[in-house]
Design brief:
mainly alpha, membrane, transmembrane, globular, 2 strands, cell membrane, two-stranded antiparallel sheet
Length: about 270
């Protein structure tokens, strides 16, 4: 049953990656966190490191999800180069710092940070103008140099610390630049790749600093068995979601995006 749940949630992460730009973190992190605690309790090494394992494995799954989804959106003509570079490079630099910081704090700190950030993001999307409704026919504006540098570093650091890929920050940012939900969520996938690559490599490089023996399927905090099963499911999910690219009405797309964030928030509040 454990393996079936991993494949099922992997399928959900693939769908969310294609349609909402979530590289997998908002599905994978809560799932693995609760399954590790439920299966091992809080005493064994895997239970004590449940949040670290969930975040590290999530970044690894994101490499596949974000990479495959990027290819699909590239073929659909949904990617705009000047929003991807140099923002993506700064996100990668911030991601390294975020992964290092995550290994230095407790799992509970990471969990509370995950919940707090979700709550702030949901409130921001609901209360600040420019997200729920596209700004008329206004020509999308470009990101300024300061916004690109500061935004990229902070997005990379926060995303890797929480294991969420950065879509929760890049989508609202690009949405307020005047992009449709289809374009904003499409752009979130290539912008999640620097987070996924830098985060995974850093978590693996810090393997010697992990506490206790997590088991034979681990490299650092990355659970390779969970990664394989989640990836298998995500490939199916992306195939199912591909026909819906660009077909969801913009306002509905934005509302469902916020609704999914709210569901994840409640799932992380439950112990």
């Amino acid at each position: 049953m454990f393996y079936l749940w991993l494949v099922l949630f992997g399928c959900m992460s693939g769908i969310s990656a294609v349609l909402f730009g979530f590289g997998g973190g908002f599905v994978v992190v809560p799932l693995l966190y609760h399954m590790l605690l439920g299966g091992h309790g809080a005493d064994p090494a895997s239970g004590q490191s449940a949040m670290h394992i969930a975040v590290a494995t999530s970044t690894c799954v994101m490499i596949v999800n974000a990479g495959m989804a990027t290819g699909k959106h590239l073929r659909a003509g949904n990617l705009i180069r000047h929003y991807l570079w140099p923002l993506g490079a700064y996100i990668g630099l911030g991601a390294i710092a975020g992964a290092v910081l995550a290994t230095a704090v407790s799992g509970e700190v990471m969990r509370y940070a995950f919940v707090a950030y979700l709550a702030l993001t949901i409130a921001d999307c609901l209360l600040r103008r420019g997200f729920l409704q596209q700004a008329g026919t206004r020509v999308p504006r470009r990101l300024g140099p300061a916004q690109t540098l500061g935004g990229g570093l902070s997005i990379g650091a926060i995303a890797t610390f929480l294991g969420v890929g950065g879509s929760v920050m890049t989508v609202p940012l690009l949405r307020r630049c005047g992009l449709s939900m289809t374009l904003a969520t499409s752009m979130a996938n290539p912008l999640s790749l620097p987070v996924a690559l830098a985060g995974t490599l850093t978590y693996m490089a810090l393997a010697g600093f992990s506490q206790g023996d997590l088991g034979p399927w681990f490299i650092g905090y990355v659970d390779l068995l969970a990664f394989a099963l989640l990836t298998l499911g995500s490939l199916l999910g992306m195939r199912l979601a591909s026909p819906w690219i660009g077909r969801i009405p913009d306002r509905l797309h934005a509302r469902v995006y916020i609704g999914l964030l709210t569901l994840v928030l409640f799932s992380m509040l439950v112990r």
